[in-house]
Amino acid sequence: MSEATFNKAELAKYNGQDGQPAYVAVDGVVYDVTGVAAWAGGKHHGNLAGQELTAVIDEHSPHGRKVLKNLNVVGKYVEA
């Protein structure tokens, strides 16, 4: 895993807007969803990139965590 560490404010910068990459955090791991067509523009079914989405993927996503294995890990998420 990458050594990069993201807190809430840092992760929010990677929202897929204005040329920024699109990152999301799930269970302490930050994933790059920039190249995923479903995340075009940093948005996916009402969810926004640059956020911690563990509850969303576990409680509301029809595909669950299985899609995470296809994504690049860019760091870890810390609550700070």
UniProtKB/TrEMBL annotation:
SMART domains assigned to the protein according to its UniProt record, in alphabetical order: Cyt-b5 (SM01117)
Pfam families associated with the record: Cyt-b5
Residue intervals of the Cytochrome b5 heme-binding domain: 6-78
Name this protein carries in UniProt: Cytochrome b5 heme-binding domain-containing protein
Protein's organism: Lactiplantibacillus fabifermentans DSM 21115
